Amino acid sequence: MTVRTRFAPSPTGYLHIGGARTALFNWLFARHHRGRFVLRIEDTDVARSTEESIKAILDGMEWLGLDWDEGPYFQSKRFEIYRKHVDILLAKKLAYRCYCTPEELEERRRKAIQKGYPPRYDGRCRNIKDAPDMPFAVRFMVPEGTTTVEDLIRGRVSFDNEQLEDFVILRSDGTPTYNLCVVVDDAEMEISHVIRGDDHLNNTPKQILLYRALGYPVPFFAHLPMILGQDKTRLSKRHGATSVMAYKEMGYLPHALVNYLARLGWSYGDQEVFSRDELIEKFSLENVGRSSGIFNPEKLLWLNQHYIKNTSNEELAELMVPFLKTLGVDPSGDERLPRIVGTLKERAKTLKEMAEASLFYFKDEVNYDTSAVRKFLTPDRIELFELLVERLSGVEPFTEEGIEGAFRSILDEKGIKLKRLAQPVRVAITGRTVSPGIFETIGALGKERTISRLKRAISLMKDTNPTV
RNA sequence: GGUCCCAUCGUCUAGUGGCCUAGGACAUCGCCCUCUCAAGGCGAAAACACGGGUUCGACUCCCGUUGGGACCGCCA
């Protein structure tokens, strides 16, 4: 049997963290088994579905590298197929027309809750005659008995059919509902494994009943635990960024998010870091946990930092360009970029952070931190700086080793510690007290710029009444 | 309210009856390294929700309690 999985989002918003993980697990399962991964857009709710949302979901999938083999299929274009299935059920007397109006149902539901009864449809239209002129919905006739879900993650879960009401499969406006569409599509698209969120477990018996009524084979089910926010409630906007694309904008690497999401609910011994191929190779439903997990942004951040650190300078240079541009820097043609990135990548948690930290390399005017200047750019270092300018000018080629040599020669002569010289120089060329290593910073900045910044600092120090 | 699911450090988790004095990772704290900040290294603190069984022996199996979550729509 070839494995076929699917991701079936409804386009009523962006691709969020929870959806992305569901998509990822389906994708991993399909790839692991060399099966097919299908994308299907569940847009039967015409009122709430939007084009932007479809695009947002596709963009998110693409960014994460979750490529699909078939689709996207759109349920809105398959209404005829669903109608046909409803007719079959109607003909087999496994479904019936219901003439109750939504208002009546709402009223009855309200009363039931008030009296403490379960708010369930009572099946009153089961045996009434068809009235051709009246608007109707179609309900599935739930048989008596027990329905058991054989879940690959939860095990065997049984439901008493009495708990299932005769649910609507076709609305009075002629559009089909979720439970019907999902079954028809999964059956027709020959989905072998339905891997989805825990929140669908309670729908599963209804769907199994539908598969049977329609004469379709029942697929395997696997219900993934939910992802919760810090307060243990279902992850939502209140918990901060939940849109996948928001993470792109914040400077996350797609694979960091993939790695993080994979480990939220799934594990492989003590291993935390997985390449894409490793994930595919090692993923299995057996190692998916059963309890819901809390989304932990700090661990994601750590993974992001880890991957930034381990990405090549060239690649990072390219990834950082859009972030620089939004900061007003156009680095195109600047050959220093890979090297600059190299000095920053050990200490950046996001691409955005890295871009911000790199600004001093590009701006002609150093943005001085006043208290740093006051503390480190004092007149007693003028001589040291002049000496450094002289030595640095003689360094050719301008390599890190050469730069360090220039520094060391001064330190030896003056009998001072590197600290004495490095901090003021750092302030002079970056404007602040925190930066990458001083030699690599100077190397990446370049000879001309370094010397001009040192000279500018010297004149600042000479100025008894400096304005910075 | 009814039904269903879940329960190991703050968080993600390892653990499938003796290997557990419960392991790893993030976060936290300390030390080392050091030109600042990071990174890195070393170390510390930190958990089997509770109560009953079953068993020679339970984190592991069963039951209950408690707690959390989901679903109960002519939403998906």
How would you describe this protein?
The strands form 5 sheets. A 3-stranded parallel sheet has the order 1-2-3, covered by helices on one side. It has a 3-stranded antiparallel sheet with strand order 4-5-8. Helices cover 47% and strands 11% of the residues. It has helices at residues 17-32, 51-64, 79-91, 102-115, 178-188, 204-214, 244-249, 254-263, 276-282, 297-309, 313-326, 337-344, 351-362, 370-376, 382-393, 400-414, 418-430, 438-445, 447-462; strands at 4-7, 36-41, 70-74, 95-98, 137-140, 146-151, 155-160, 168-170, 193-197, 220-224, 227-228, 293-294. Helix 12 packs antiparallel against helix 18. The protein contains 19 helices and 12 strands. With 468 residues, it is mainly alpha-helical. The model has no long low-confidence stretch (mean pLDDT 92). It binds one RNA strand of 76 nucleotides through helix 4, strand 5, strand 7, strand 8 and helix 5.
